[in-house]
Design a protein that fits this description.
Chain lengths: ~325, ~290
Amino acid sequence: MLKELTKLEMKKTREGFGHGLVDLGEKDERIVVLAADVTDSVNAGFFARRFPERFVQMGIAEQNMATVATGLSLVGKIPFYSTYSVFSTCRCMDQIRISICYSNANVKICGAHGGISVGQDGATHQAMEDIAMMRSLPNMKVIVPCDYWQSKRATMAAAYIDGPVFIRFGREAVPTLTDESTPFEFGKGVVLRDGGDVAIIACGVMVYEALVAAEVLGKQGIDCRVINLHTIKPIDRDLIIRAARECGAIVTAEEHQVYGGMGSAVAEVLVSHAPVPQEFVAVMDCFGQSGQPDELLRAYGLKSEDIIAAVKRVLKRK
Amino acid sequence: MNPFNYSAEQLQAAALDVRRDIITMLVEAKSGHTGGPLSCTDFATALSFRYLNHKPSEPHWTDRDFLFYSIGHVTPVNYSLLAECGYFPLKDLMTFRKLNSRLQGHPHRLDTPGIEISSGSLGQGLSIACGVAKGSKIDKHPRRVFCIMGDGELQEGSCWEAVMFAGHYHLDNLGVIVDYNKRQIDGEVPKIMDVAPLADKWRAFNWQVLEIDGNDMQQILAAYDEMLRHRDRPMVIIAHTTMGKGVSFMEGKAEWHGKPPTMEQGEQALQELGTTYAEWSSRLLAG
Ligand SMILES: Cc1ncc(C[n+]2csc(CCOP(=O)(O)OP(=O)(O)O)c2C)c(N)n1
């Protein structure tokens, strides 16, 4: 299987987003897309060229974009606003909190360039707090798809999830784990590999790294369950509790700060319902820097080797 | 006092070197912004080498003037000028955007001598400059505060909160230069989200306004001289520039906003600038 894992097609999640928007636009007149001077970097350009009358160029004005999207939702549109995740979330936090979440406005917040794998633009452009910020807000839902197809499906699903939704994409091409026919079920994690010694719960690009780690560990006699937790809020409590009860140890892996992200969300479930040891693979409370994407994932402890080490640590605590 | 106090001719020669640095470091980094740094080069060089009161050997010297690049992405021109002034060795330019470099893709105050604030998120620099200008007023300190802004950047509403603040508090120790190259990532500024009429907007907020050809050294010097003479309100120089200035195939093209030249394009650019990659990279590596 490890060999097969290295043969997967490489595709960008942000492209899945762009194609999902076009498919949505074809069948639903209410879909409108907003962008803020990075239209093609986030692949909103596919929609902009296909449906120019339903595309709104905002210029470099993200806070205005968040609140204009809110207004569009009040007249029955389904607005998807898009830019790099640092700007679609952090830059607009108060607008998102009050105008979007408090009012439960039907706005879809799209963040491309999530995580440290953004690369050479460096810390300013690497969104690593977005999951924490978005999941802290009442009424918000949070989705972090793992590959191209899941991004496309999640984008299409988001249109019909009532109220605010945040979806996070990446910049780089990542291995494609799902295919055109794989369903996307909002709020339901997916068991990609069954196992009973430890459960590795991952999201985004880390799902692939988790599968690679599980393969290596399998050869060493450690039987890993791998879960793709694409929906972080609402969280799939039952799946996590079952994994904790059946495996007795959890490792979470995400391209995000350790504080407040998906790992924290899993820990919140564990301490309340099924306390078992947990280890976190995440960015350890520091800013990123410029470098090549893969180089950075390695330097900041976000590769399969780091997951393997975390599994070994957690098994000692079991 | 500026420690260099270059003449117009010396500034033109320095600006040429800065353009060579920009192309060379971008070719080496294989990533980064080319168009904006080249449009800013002339007025930024004049600031560093003639007007800014600074001490490269003592970046935190308390009596210095402050210079903010609110457009963080123009690091190539910012870093080149810092290195050419002597804040750090020229060879560091060849580490730009690489892992563990002190020269991050967007400027980081804790890494690089001469960087006053970390930036890269547009629309924050002028507010910070306002804070320094207001603080200096409170202290009755005579320092000047300069801020370089982009025309696309001016689409951020936060910029105008700062413009209003400076007008309200008569921050005559504050000078802004707008790099009005009429280009941003998605295309031409007037088509994406027009910021015109710019001069009227700033005037309405009680600023003194000068409009110049921002790639003409004589006009740049005349404008800065006026800025330094002038007292009672903040002043903005609206510098009409050309994105990618100095490299024929980049001039006026928005596509050069955020990409580096390939080695081949770099050679062609450096040839237009009177050097070669081999020659200029060895100058940097030796420095
Ligand atoms: C808040 C924020 N939004 C978006 C970006 C992405 N971005 C970087 S530069 C840029 C365009 C800036 O245009 P302009 O100020 O005209 O600079 P120029 O293109 O002339 O270099 C954009 C949208 C950013 N860095 N910060």
